[in-house]
Amino acid sequence: MENKFLKKKELYKMDYRVKITIRNNRILNRMEEKGYPTMTSFSKAIGVSQNQIQGVISGKIKPISKKGTIISPVKTMLDALDLSLEDAFTERQLEGFNKNSFEVTMDENQIHSITSPVKNTELLAMEQNVHSTLKNLMIKILKPRENMLIEKFYFENKSIKELAKESNLTRTRIDQIIKKALFKLSKHYHEFDKSGITDIFPKVGNTSPLVENNTYNRHFTYRKENIKQ
Fold first, then answer.
1. Of these four, 45, 89, 103, 228, which has the most CB atoms within 10 Å of its CB?
2. Residue ranges per structural domain of the chain
3. DSSP labels, 154-204
4. What is the pLDDT of residues 113-159, one digit of tens each?
């Protein structure tokens, strides 16, 4: 009983309820390449009903019959798209899906990871290199606590409220420390510029490092509004 209660409590902590719908991206991409932006236009062009096309793309209609042959609507679709069965479906997709939509719960960090654009390997390597250079510069310029707060605020996307709770300090004090650290960093802008940070992390300010960061401005406004209350 206690475990059920704890699980329910953890569920309430999640920030988002996300619906995942399965669709065949291989077929959808090829439709777009062939000039069919919608299933309606594709349906009219090939003479297969929209419901059948939707069923195939969603996985509700299996492309292979019980006899092991390609069903007629799928064969027409593949011919129109110049796709082979292997190119259009994975082995799992060939089996079809009894259920093609699911709901999952996610917290803020999880939703951020799936909504942010996926970065290619080269860009990730460049970011890691710049981040490493930046961290070394920050260690030289800032005090340990200043360095820690800047690191968590800008590169771990922690909020002022979260940092205050972790550090056992007020939001006002966290804000003061961050602003002081930013002022110190602004005096060494030429070193940051050489590191390549302004190219890799465009959110960093153009005139003084990190000052123009939108994340910082957002939290600073939030802080001022809450202090007044």
1. 89
2. 2-19+103-114, 23-99, 119-228
3. IIS---HHHHHHHHT--HHHHHHHHHHHHHHHHTTHHHHHHHTHHHH-TTS
4. 666 655 556 666 666 776 777 788 888 889 999 999 988 887 777 88
